[in-house]
Design a protein that fits this description.
heterodimer; A: mainly alpha; MetI-like fold; about 80% helix; B: about 250 residues; alpha/beta; 6-stranded mixed β-sheet; 4-stranded antiparallel β-sheet; 10 helices; 10 strands
Chain lengths: ~230, ~250
Amino acid sequence: MSIDYFSVGRVVEYLPAMLRKLPVTLAVAFSSTALGLVLATLIAAALLFRVPALYQVIKVFISFSRAIPINIQLFVYYYGLPALLAPYLLPLGLNPSRANPIYFVVATYAISSSAFMAVMLSASISGVDPGQSEAALSIGMTGGQMFRRVIGPQAFQIALPEMGNVIVTNLKNTSLAFTVGVIDMVGATRAIATRTHHALEGYVGNALVYFVICLLLEKAFGLLERRYRLRKG
Amino acid sequence: MITLSNIHKSFGRNHVLKGIDLTIRDGEAFVIIGASGSGKTTLLRAINFLERADQGEISIGGVSVSAKRATKKQVLDIRRRTAMVFQNYNLFRNRTAIRNVAEGLVIVQKVGEKEALERAAELMAQVGLSDKLDAYPSQLSGGQQQRVAIARALALRPEVILFDEPTSALDPELVGEVLGVMREVARMGITMILVTHEMSFARDIASQIVFIDDGVIVEQGAPIEIFRDAKEERTRQFLRRIMPEFTYHI
């Protein structure tokens, strides 16, 4: 009997079942990035305006998010958030322990990547030379006009490449969502492996899908960067 | 008319401006000279609130505000009566030259896009850059950038243009073109307040020169009074240091 480790046929065979769960993977990646960006904007504003007490808290939070492996963060939030929120939610008839784990995954990645993005945003904004802000003010622009017309667009150019990296990181981190019971693409692959006793094909298929999506993202950000660089001249 | 009265400004313990009083009449080319660290740039920046003075009164075209207590709205009002040309040009790097000039018209003065661009093109012609309308700042030389910056200031038709050492960052061979444009601005009768180290230029175009040292006005007068027979020893010393030939040739 020949040893049957791998067959391309099975990669193709398993792919549709995995791809059916791809939307979950993408939803986690994009919603956590979007939510993270909202959080990051608030944090970056606090950093830039040096809001006194908040500033210290955020510094600690940022080093927390940077230092702790993402799967540990995931477990901490997955087990920690329900305990933290239960006193407020239970009276409303909501049991956070029974909530769909996907919310915790999105929350974890949003919170975790918000730290990176906050640093990125505030660095990009401080990266625009202050002389231009003074010029904007000197011609009578308000703070808001200055941000919209001068600082914002240039900070965006600076932040764009890093933004691409954050999305790719969040996308790859979704592969850990199964550890708290989310059935995404990886979750589906594990189910197939258990059922058929063929693991390799599923993971090879997974690798291909991640690879293609990352490639597409890279391409998209490359185009964006070129477009905005051109406008700078 | 612009009047500054009793302007004081400190940075921490460093008392930079120690009670400056100045009156600048309309159409005047008012030049401020003084050594580095004498407070002349700070004084200029206090006028449009890029530095907020600690004490004193600033009045431009009949609007008078307290430096210390001016509200956001008053600051904006003062800034909209002035324009500034910076040492490092400070063009908006994400906009083309003509857009830099039109920006204030469109965004601040709410002039229509088409009219703003027409006016900007005229001004670009005036500073001799009709062929650079669509160039980005990074594609222009320092002298060209500074001429765009002057056009940007002119576009707003301010009551006064503040020039903060506009040629100090330029390569020597580019200074002439910028001074040429500034001479033109002076000839147009636009009120200008100029901080500069270009003494011969100051002598040429200034209607009034004020010499500042250590945060106080030492001496003020027409160019000929300052350069030929300064009354104060401090002024004479400064001029000897910065332009030795003056003391011998005149």
